[in-house]
Amino acid sequence: MPAIPNSMVTGAFELPGYRIARNAGIVRGIVVRSRSVVGSIGAGLQTLLGGNISLYADMCEKAREDAYELMTAHAASHGANAVIGMRYDANEIGPGVTEVLAYGTAVVVEAERA
Predict the structure, then answer these.
(1) Which of the two residues, 54 and 4, has the higher pLDDT score?
(2) Does residue 86 sit in helix, strand or coil?
């Protein structure tokens, strides 16, 4: 479970129903993954058949999930209860080695009064 609930993380720069009381700064979660030999062989066989390469898709999904969890924990460690402007980025840093980055702005939000 993330340190900040999913409902309090957005790619937008505001959360409807809340006002930003404090900016806690930029936060990030970084994961570096490599393909295993077995996974590469399995994925290679899937490429022969065409379509979605589920072995790679599953690996990418897990890397993003892990980066997201690290980002929300980083935000919570800064005293934030929300993240706005959340984005993902990925870079190949070597043959078969990829960095996945989740980042955004950690903020403290308060419910707007009706």
Answers:
(1) 4
(2) strand
